[in-house]
Amino acid sequence: MISTELDAAAITDPRLRRAYRHCRDLNARHGRTFFLATRLLAPAQRPAIHALYGFARWADDIVDLPDPGAGTPRARLDDLTRQLLSGLDTPGRGEPVVAAVGHTVARYHLDNGLFRAFLDSMRMDLTVTGYPDRPALDRYVYGSAEVIGLQVLPVLGTVCPQSEAAPYAAALGKAFQLTNFLRDVAEDLDRGRVYLPADELAAFRVDRDLLHWCRDHRRTDTRVRAALAAQHAVARRWYARALPGIDLLHPISRPCVATAAVLYGEILDRIEDLDFAVFSERATVGRARRAHVAGSALARALWARRNGRSGTLTPATIPA
Question: pTM surpassing 0.85?
Answer without folding.
Answer: yes
